[in-house]
Amino acid sequence: MTxxxxxxxxxxxxxxxxxxxSKRRRGLFKKAQELSTLCDAEIALVVFxxxxxxxxxxxxxVQQVIERHGLLSSNFDRLNQPSLELQLESSTSAALRKEIxxxxxxxxxxxxxxxxxxxxxxxQELEKLLGSGLRRVRDAxxxxxxxxxxxxxxxxxxMIQENKRLKQMANRQVQTLELERGxxxxxxxxxxxxxxxxxxxxxxxxxxxGLVYSTRFS
Amino acid sequence: MTxxxxxxxxxxxxxxxxxxxSKRRRGLFKKAQELSTLCDAEIALVVFxxxxxxxxxxxxxVQQVIERHGLLSSNFDRLNQPSLELQLESSTSAALRKEIxxxxxxxxxxxxxxxxxxxxxxxQELEKLLGSGLRRVRDAxxxxxxxxxxxxxxxxxxMIQENKRLKQMANRQVQTLELERGxxxxxxxxxxxxxxxxxxxxxxxxxxxGLVYSTRFS
DNA sequence: CGCTCTATCTATAAAGG
DNA sequence: TCCTTTATAGATAGAGC
Lengths: 218, 218
What we know:
The structure is a homodimer. By secondary structure, chain A is mainly α. Chain A has helices at 14-39, 60-69, 76-79, 90-112, 120-181, 188-192, 196-199; strands at 42-48, 54-58. A two-stranded antiparallel sheet of chain A has the order 1-2. In chain A, strand 1 and strand 2 (54-58) form a beta hairpin. The first copy, chain A, is elongated. The interface between A and B is large, with 124 and 131 residues.
């Protein structure tokens, strides 16, 4: 895009990579902003640098949701703040913290006690112990990562399916009504385009578990 | 960016807006992809068009992580199959694995070498080293958990938002049609009641989204 | 000082009206 | 497709720590 054409592959030189990251990141965010404004699109963009630094952009309506969920905060605890819809198993992270603390404490204790009195064989035993301790910590964390992800993905899938179902039902309903009326009508456009005044109602991002309407005008 | 400079404000002409959306959207996604590749960044980008259509990009998928972990295979694969939409970035797990491997190796090496010759002070140095190694592993994993969860929650929020919008649209549509017809009608039952045979498709404790029917025929 | 990040400049590749 | 505008690679300098 500039003085010379470049290959799109990871930039080896660290400094050059950081500079490019900084420049392109800005360009990307600018374009995201422009697109959302020009075309009235809702956009959420999150970038983690290789060093873990976070950058984000969200168009206004989306932002509110995210903020309320306490996302994009570096604070883990805040991540797990109550969100009705996506209640995480934050208890697992507590368990994780606890286990790590215990393991660390145990390690320190082992290493601090009478090491002078240990012979080579005993020291090797200790090595094994430390190794397996590390492995256990690692495994425990892996378990927890997977549980979190499993749970979240599962819930995400539920949402997607529910979404599909709603769409199908809505379409079916519209079609049925059209058929009854014996003509097509415009409001379909309305169906597709949410009314902004309602759409930005942000007093509640949670799922309104609407009543399943099960009566028939009785 | 082109023949004439334009104002960054919503494009009035619908056709022009759609064309611009399409072009710029592609440009944006391309640049996101380039940035993630060039600079080894993790990126998640989601765009909803004004008509509610979803476009997304994530720098890599959770699927890969899971495969790499090779854990919980049977359960997990089933859970994760359906959701293209819920892909996570996790190139970081490779880095994690590497770090763990290195740490473990380093530990073993340290513990295996001339431990007989170390005095208490030196052993305490070693203790510190081991402790900080463990801490680094812990931190690395914590980072990754955080990223995964952040990404998943964020996408979950998107789904919720979309779901909510669909509900609102559906409700408005129903109301509009009823108003036009000036009478109640039967098919609503169909609309409102999800097909039971589908509804019990999973042992799900999840949210069942009913349409909120705000009736005025009572 | 060394290291990381940002700013500035220029010429050119890419975007997009 | 055309062709101007924008984005940005490359280089260098300066700021902040």
